[in-house]
Amino acid sequence: MLQVCNISTYYGNIQALKEIDLEIKEGEIVTLIGSNGAGKTTLLKTISGLIKPKTGSVKFNGRQITSLDAPEIVKLGISLSPEGRQVFPKMTVGENLELGAFIRKDNKEIKESFQRIYELFPRLHERKNQVAGTLSGGEQQMLAIGRALMSKPKLLLLDEPSLGLAPMLVETIFELIKEINQQGITILLIEQNARMALMVANRGYVMETGKIVLQDDAINLLESDGVRKAYLGE
Hints:
By secondary structure, this protein is α/β, with parallel strands linked by helices. The protein contains 10 helices and 10 strands.
């Protein structure tokens, strides 16, 4: 479904990504783990068209998307739920979700998407007329994911969905990630909570200072001594 080939991305003269190769198959949950500053968010921004790479290519369902702008990439079926949630605080929950469907014209199907989001996140239905800035951290995270789903993505990019949440809410978010995947959406997940991420993922990649240093099935990474010492606190 997604092929990232030899991608190098820069911020000015600083190289953030160094010849990255990554592949995601349809239906998978793939996680990307690594310390802060490893380049994980930069990779998601490069895939979603927010940053242009200096070298390399990104293909989605066989189509070259490296030079496309972000709205065009959303139309093809890739949606990003960004780090830090970035909801529109002065707009209601419903208005935030509506913005997620900005590329769509199919009013009947948009209404159906609202229904699906409210079924997935009942809390958002309860708060649909509430201003997003007054929601709790967990509710804002649900809203950010729901907004990304409103574009009907085939591939959902999740950047640190559990960041700053209480442990009980972290479990809820990961259960929702599994449920979203079971509904037919492929997921690329960036997550500081490496253990939880590897427990829901099919495969994982480990990034260090802009490079992929390890890739394997998630279960093998969970059992790797090096990964456990570096990222699982063991």
